[in-house]
Design brief:
It contains three helices and four strands; from the N terminus they run E-H-E-E-E-H-H. The chain has a single domain, classed as Ribosome hibernation promotion factor-like (Double Stranded RNA Binding Domain, 2-Layer Sandwich). The termini are far apart. The longest helix has 27 residues. Helix content is 41%, strand content 28%. 18% of the residues are buried.
């Protein structure tokens, strides 16, 4: 899985980039078909850093999560949490879809 981290209107230290990378890498546990994660940290307003995570993978639409908070790490955690929920719902939808019986087959 490829993780791209970029910053707008500022700079992230290599330590911060590494920490963000480890936090978003755990999203692979929730849906194994993720091929790339793009993390953008917007530091235009230093008091309210914004984080956007875009997940792309095979056989799925791109999923996007945004979070803005007073602290950078709360923004990262919030965006990761939102994306976790989206990935869980997507995975459940895929798994449930395969096991649904149609009315035609149930009548036999």
């Amino acid at each position: 899985m490829q993780v791209n981290i970029s910053a707008r209107h500022g700079h992230l230290s290599p330590a911060s980039q590494s920490k963000i990378s480890t936090k978003v890498a755990r999203l692979k546990r929730f849906f194994s078909r993720i091929s790339a994660l793009h993390v953008t940290v917007d530091l235009e307003n230093a008091a309210l850093p914004a984080v956007e995570i875009i997940a792309s993978g095979e056989h799925m639409h791109e999923m996007v999560s945004h979070e803005t908070s007073k602290q950078l790490w709360r923004s990262v955690d919030g965006a990761v949490q939102k994306l976790e929920q989206q990935l869980r719902r997507h995975k459940e939808k895929i798994q449930d879809h395969k096991h649904v019986q149609s009315d035609r087959h149930a009548e036999k």
